[in-house]
Design a protein that fits this description.
The protein is mainly β. It has one domain (about 1-340): Distorted Sandwich (Beta-galactosidase, Chain A, domain 5), CATH 2.70.98. The protein is about 5% helix and about 40% strand. A nine-stranded antiparallel sheet has the order 11-12-13-14-29-23-22-17-20. The chain starts with a strand and ends with a strand. The relative contact order is 0.16.
């Protein structure tokens, strides 16, 4: 079942809608037409209450003003682009630079800061945004369509398609901050994490990928193939992970829908499994969160949420051995993400 209600008006006077998806198992997903932010995911508990398991805000203004992409769709290009540029047909194209000399998550006003055209179609929400040619410097008009569906077997299915009228770059992800314990009241260090990846892309001092794709060695900070407690690894590898994880892992590079990661809060037993068709996943443990007032006046601090951002590898147009992020009128973009919740 899907219902809707108003969630305020943007600073430009556009009304924003919140859509509430519910299934018969008492799971709820609250989705905004602004930035396609997942404002809440309510997980049923043994009591009459439900536990919110994502970070978010109670008002629209904070979504408009805040820079940390909390709970939103990210595009046109997820992650960092060195020098704020892309290379297409051997030509370097200059884009906006919103993080020093680089571009992060699509620029100053990426897909996370846009109002999406949303409608309810049966059991799904269809969301559309038309990004004009040269938006944030990207070539081509890109029309992105995303379907959201909460199934009766506790899966949130997210199907993403994009078409363009000229050759361009598209690399989309979701930037949901999970905290399966208490929705951000405390930190996520007691969570267990498993990432099904045999390699990762190391970064430099600016968090830009070096272009290397390194195999994961047993017992290293990046060997997450078996469940580990986040706190244990932060303690054990504190020199390698001074701000925690913010690294891209190779999800074994297949284009089929596959299990990428599983996060578990052991005390409650709450669990989310991430499935994706994308070749990579950015694991981020929220080390840069600093005293943000979230829902119910909760103060979010560092490590109060983690992200599992399925995507193509960062800065891919500058590294030929990375899976291509280039799309054309004849080669559109199509990817799938599933959040599978343990009942």
């Amino acid at each position: 079942m899907i219902t809707s209600q108003q969630f305020g008006t943007t600073q430009n006077g556009i009304e924003i809608t919140k859509f509430i998806l519910r299934n018969n198992n008492d799971f709820e997903v609250h989705l905004l037409s602004y930035g396609l932010a997942i404002q809440k995911i309510l997980y049923p508990t043994n009591s009459a209450n439900k536990q919110d398991i994502v970070l978010g805000f109670d008002n629209l203004k904070t979504y408009e003003d805040h820079p940390l992409f909390i709970g939103c769709i990210v595009g046109r290009n997820a992650n960092r682009l060195s020098n704020g540029s892309i290379i297409i047909d051997n030509e370097e194209i200059q884009l906006s630079q919103n993080e020093g000399n680089n571009q992060l998550h699509g620029g100053y006003k990426g897909f996370d800061k846009q109002v999406w055209d949303c409608e309810i179609i049966g059991t799904k929400i269809k969301a559309t945004y038309v990004s004009p040619d040269k938006e944030e410097g990207f070539p081509g008009k890109v029309t992105t369509t995303i379907f959201f569906e909460l199934t009766e077997d506790n899966k949130l299915k997210i199907d993403i398609d994009a078409i363009t009228d000229k050759t361009t770059v598209v690399n989309l992800t979701r930037h949901d901050y999970f905290n399966l314990k208490d929705g951000g009241v405390s930190d996520i260090k007691s969570h267990q994490i498993q990432i099904n990846a045999d390699a990762y892309t190391p970064t430099d001092s600016e968090s830009l990928v070096t272009g290397d794709l390194l195999p994961i060695n047993n017992h290293s900070a990046f060997d997450l193939r078996k469940p580990v407690t986040i706190q244990d690894n932060l303690n054990k590898y504190n020199k390698e992970l001074p701000k925690g994880y913010d690294h891209n892992f190779s999800a074994n590079r297949t284009e089929t829908l596959k299990s990428v990661a599983i996060a578990t809060e052991t005390e409650s037993g709450r669990q989310v499994e991430i499935l994706s068709t994308q070749p990579g996943v950015q694991f981020y443990t929220g080390g840069h969160i600093t005293d943000i007032e979230g829902k119910n006046k909760t103060l979010y601090k560092a490590f109060h949420g983690f992200c599992l951002e399925t995507q193509h590898f960062p800065d891919a147009t500058k590294h030929d051995h990375f899976s291509s992020t280039i799309i054309t009128p004849k080669k559109p973009y199509s990817q799938h993400i599933v959040y599978k919740f343990k009942a």
